[in-house]
Amino acid sequence: MIQIFGTAKCKTTRAAQRFFAERRIKVQVVELREKGLSKGELTSVARAVGGMQALYDRESARVKERGLQHAAPNDARLLELFLDDPLLLRTPIVRDGQRAAVGADEAAWKAFADAAKGAG
Description:
- With 120 residues, the protein is α+β, with helices and mostly antiparallel strands.
- It has one domain: Glutaredoxin, CATH 3.40.30.
- 43% of the residues lie in helices and 15% in strands.
- The protein is built from five helices and four strands; from the N terminus they run E-H-E-H-H-H-E-E-H.
- It has helices at residues 11-22, 39-49, 61-65, 75-84, 106-119, and strands at residues 2-6, 27-31, 93-96, 99-102.
- The radius of gyration is 14 Å and the shape is globular.
């Protein structure tokens, strides 16, 4: 099952939800304000998207709020930050098993949708 991790306020998260809804593909939406990713999920997603740095949204309001925009945290520190505050993640995170995409990645969403249609 395809999972979308994001927030209701995020335009790109809503675009991802709409993308899959238009193709009649069921997704599980996880609101990051309520529930973050587990350590295992974060590690798996980071591996799929090219590392923890790819998940870090330096430009987000939350990063600026916490005074982290000029910080250059290493992967271990980012993992700690993400576990503590999932709103520091770039959204949406779209995950399909071991595969994942972050941000507005319609090409990856299409690949996930095609795979879901083939399996369904």
